[in-house]
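Q: How do we represent a protein-ligand complex in a form that can be generated token by token?
A: Start from the inputs.
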Amino acid sequence: MNKALEEVKLTNLSLKNRIVRSATVDPFGNLDGTVSEEQVKLYEILAENNIGLIISAMSYITPAGKVGREQNAICDDEFIDSHRKLVDTVHLAGSKVILQISHCGSGSMSLDGMPPVAPSPVPYPGSDVVPRELTVPEIELIIEQFIEAAVRAKKAGYDGIQLHCAHQYLLSEFLDPVYNKRDDEYGSSIMNRFKISEQIIRGCVRELGVSYPIFIKVNSNTAGNDDEYYNDLIYVAKKCKELGVAAIEYSGYNFTPLGRKGLHNYYLDRVSDIRREVDIPAILVGGIRSFKDMDTVLDSGIDMLSISRPFICEPDLVTRLISGQEEAKCTSCSKCFYLYRKEGRRCIFHEKLD
Ligand SMILES: Cc1cc2nc3c(=O)[nH]c(=O)nc-3n(C[C@H](O)[C@H](O)[C@H](O)COP(=O)(O)O)c2cc1C
Ligand code: SF4
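Then emit the structure tokens for the protein with iron/sulfur cluster bound:
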């Protein structure tokens, strides 16, 4: 049997294989923040098709950290019921699902004409909107909002949570010196830059118990001093191990241009180096497109394989690969970021709607 299809255990979470659907926002959420019937159907198809672990689309922990109109919310108890329906459907279809919780920092939508908030007044990549620097009491409030969101996730039945600390959103902005220019207890050293995430994880363990699986997703690289950032990641991995984090998913700040170049397994070398240095399960995401890619990744010591765009194109991709399809159709063009709004279809390989 292919190694990717072997059963695996992460802390106390038993998974039927090593294949993960990486968090992926879809355009189907209800405008009030609840999970829609269309989303439940989408997750049912994913769950029926041999994915070991599904990571949900990112749900916002406060309206101030919301990134898109159709994004799901987990910022209030009123959202728990609609999430529970999604979770129950995934479980009935034989898979597991964890909730990704996020605050999009400088990338967040403006509320009432106010600028978004961030660790420092550094704009989101490609934007000229200067965010407002968070005060320490505001940071403490955000920590509580993350913890409360995690408690709701457990109440909804999710098998765990993932903190979104990647892609230049709030927690990743704290982590990365390109975006974090603070000189207080949340800036400067890596101890301080990871502190907000650490405090959230500690709060989650306190409220949810040590056996509830907590995952995080981080960038494996930076547009700044990447050698120093490597050492930062070693610190983060060691700290996560100490805190009892189930696994770290490694993405990167530049997965879209790397994909368009036709590359595969973008972050493998960096992540296998970290995995060798620190014994905490690693999930690699970015450019994994076939069983051949998966073998290369697993042979390098990585524990789990995570895939996003190919499941937009082919939600039943794993079933297809098992049946003999050689690789995903997805070309990593990244048009799925805006295609639905323009053409009413999610992928260039889907039929155009009139
Ligand atoms: C349309 C779209 C939505 C995404 N939404 C999320 C998200 O909610 N949270 C997240 O961490 N990453 C998100 N990502 C990034 C993916 O999880 C993944 O890290 C990235 O696409 C690289 O993996 P891939 O090469 O398998 O697509 C999204 C990507 C796309 C294309
Ligand atoms: S639009 Fe492009 S990147 Fe997105 S799923 Fe389709 S082929 Fe892949």
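The radius of gyration is 19 Å. The chain has a mean pLDDT of 97.
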